[in-house]
Amino acid sequence: MDSELESFKTNIDLRAYAASKGYERDRKESWAGSDVMRHPATNDKIVVKFGTKRAPNHWGYYSFRDEDDHGTIINFVQHRLKISLGAVRKELRPWIGEPPVPVPIFAPPVRTNRNRSDVDTDFARMQISLRHPYLENERALPGSLLESDRFAGRIHIDRRGNAVFPHFDAEGLSGYELKNVGFTGFASGGTKALWLSHEFPGDNRLVFCESTIDALSHAALFPDNRARYASIGGNTSPQQPDLIKAAAARMPLDSEIVAAMDNDAIGAKLTEVVRNGVLLTGRIDLRFTVHEPLGFKDWNDQLRAKPLPFLPLRQKEAAPR
Question: What is the pTM of this model?
């Protein structure tokens, strides 16, 4: 083994080196354990992570521009500078000590397991979908809602045209739901956590729904520019109660937590999971309410029935005790 090359691959933060060459981190598409970076001049988009299936102790990357452009920092340098391995050594030797140029400060890398790394890599290849034919044509979700600041970037599309809804836990991306006509799936090797809308400082309401499509439908039926949305994705997984608690705990002072589940027995059970999550925050300022679709099983059924706009939010229950 060449100890010098091994040191380059292991000890040089590839994100910092890429930044020295003009690449910038895309905050919207980056997650813990995986950083998406773009070069404004060449429009090259890369994904950088620490630890891959084949080399768990190396920095690795791949480029969306060229499927052959991937590997370690050695490959990164050779693809961009078109230099020999000897020249690569000269280029990278200063980086074993102090970086030769000012670079951004990055948080320490998060080591992910093999399945999570695969999920992260697969998701990074998908495109953000500001408009989606299945969601608009089959589910009656307004295109203006999908491309709003609240939801833009929280819906992707894969090469098969499926709507993709990313799930997040405390470490970042954990998996993703797949939806299309007659099809429902989840990322192979992924873990169900919570789908989350974007969060803004002035928010005062958090709406939990059973599915992402129901959360989007609720937002269409009851417009509220200060509401956050979260989806459980059906029956709960072991980690979801803690994630529900954490999402509620992040809300500003005197906020409302709404359980807006399906109007059936499963929805009632999920409502209690959310209620318990709010109780476990220990915050007496949070108000808990229940909102159920009237005359429909779920919010998307109600949306597709073309209800009157701006229906009032019916509060069924008061704060938990």
Answer: 0.66
